[in-house]
Amino acid sequence: KTTKADPTDPECNLFNLYLDEYDTKWTSQINRLDYLVISSGHWFYRPVIFYENETISGCQYCALPNTTQLPLYYGYTKALRTSLRAILENFKGLAFLRSFSPQHFEGGPWDKGGDCVRTRPYRRNETIPEGADLKIHDIQVEEFRAAEEEMKKKQGLRLRLMDTTQAMLLRPDGHPGRYGHMQTAA
What we know:
The protein is an alpha/beta fold. The protein has helices spanning 24-27, 72-90, 132-151, 165-169; strands spanning 2-4, 15-18, 35-39, 48-52, 55-60, 94-98, 158-162. It has one domain. It is built from four helices and seven strands. It is globular. One of its GO terms (molecular function) is O-acetyltransferase activity.
């Protein structure tokens, strides 16, 4: 479940993320679906205040006083686990977890002048960058396996992992390059 930290400020890019709560906007409609795809990851690279048990447990990419700075992996793991639990408890159809598509920015991160200018997939003799994105993939596989064990106890739900990370790692030409930035960005 997420909300804007200040919904009255259109410039506010800080979000509240309730790591142990379902978002009823989608869980209330989940039984109407035959298929469900979870495709997440990049959204979590933003300033976020984490809540657990209705209390702030920390934040990432924020400068709030007296607030513990937590890594992206902390919030992502818990949010994915909560989402998978909502599916296991409320869904009867076929669910897919699509794995993370790595970024390929060179020369810095996307918001600091990084760009993806490649026009073809990597070749065998080229070095493929590794980094934080692959840790997101590892978290997804680990949480999928745990949910899969829980699913075996439940009749009716089918859960599949659509692991596209390796294929997308080879395809930097699929990224928007300079077009992924706001028009006003350098």
